[in-house]
Amino acid sequence: xxxxxxxQPYASVLAQPARYAPPAPPAPAPAPxxxxxxxxxxxxxxxxxxxxxxLGFLLFALIAYFGLFLGPLASVIGLVLALIPLAxxxxxxxxxxxxxxxxxxxxxxxxxxxxxxxxxxxxxVDLGLTWLFGPLGDAAGAVVQxxxxxxxxxxxxVFLVFLIARRSFDGxxxxxxxxxLVGAGFAFTENIQYFAISLxxxxxxxxxxxxxxxxxxxxxxxxxxxxxxxxxxxxxxRRHSSAGAALGYGVLxxxxxxxxxxxxxxxxxxxxxxxxxxxxxVPLFIGFILGIIALRREEARLTRxxxxxxxxxxxFTPEEVTMLATPAxxxxxxxxxxxxxxxxxxxxxxxxxxxxxxxxxxxxxxxGRDPMAGADEQALLARxxxxxxxxxxx
Length: 394
Description:
Elements: H1 45-69, H2 72-96, H3 104-133, H4 138-164, H5 172-217, H6 221-239, H7 243-269, H8 273-313, H9 318-325, H10 327-338, H11 345-367, H12 373-392
Helix pairs in contact: 1-3, 2-5, 3-4, 3-5, 4-5, 4-6, 4-7, 5-6, 6-7, 7-8, 8-9, 8-11, 9-10, 10-11, 11-12
């Protein structure tokens, strides 16, 4: 891949300065309608097939477990009610992920890992610990055992996503997204169990209370816990390429997730839940939201900086960088595309998506953590040039 080497300053600590510059654009520009080149296929497909097979096996085991111990009717009612908090969390996570959407297969895998594997493996560990040491008290189980076992298996799922698709795992926002999705999946299956047990033991009144507490007051609890693990792995993904570095960062994030989980469970076990909910949990959630906003702004700033370097090499105009790398610019660009012949907003969305991915690829090239970044770069540059030509064609 042709390249020139220069040293440029980078203001962000996440940018990791290195000697690298984008290639110069070829001449002449492509004719309108030039077919876009595909981005090279990602690795890890064989691992994904085996993992989905493992999830399928555990799913049948969980269905049998719920049907045997809770009964079909209570399980179905619990499932329907559990879809409500899942939908709330999924909607918010997808809003976070709008800047650079993750592949749908990985989104599905993250939710499935939390809903099936993390739950199933937690149940197996809990049964094993009970067989070895006898049943723990309610307090010890809620404040010690549950946070450790549950956050371990949820965090393990986020680490698996990094291992099988690290080229789609570009930074802390991606880590928060994957962690929150795994947590949302876990909470979904756990809520089925809680709702079904409440219905069996206390009827509609107890089910209503459980639904309000778990689905309306705290739908983001598990998502928030595991997002700490994802955030830590995402920071490693931005700075390093090795699985060892991601594992080390992930363990630190997992410890934070366990402590936050224990604090949450402890507030319901040892104190007035609603008092601590207002004084501790709500401020923590607000801090979580503010942190995500800051990460999103940093991601947008980094996208604009990387695309600005392509503009300096002649691939984009400064106005195009503003249109592609700012929320306001994207809105203006989509509005302009809607007024073109045939409503070209789908093409503009592809242009924005490919340009954002290009910025992430360049970041991987700068850090030197992706040996295939050059091939991705060439394909994405061809796609963006073809998209521009199609947008401007009459």
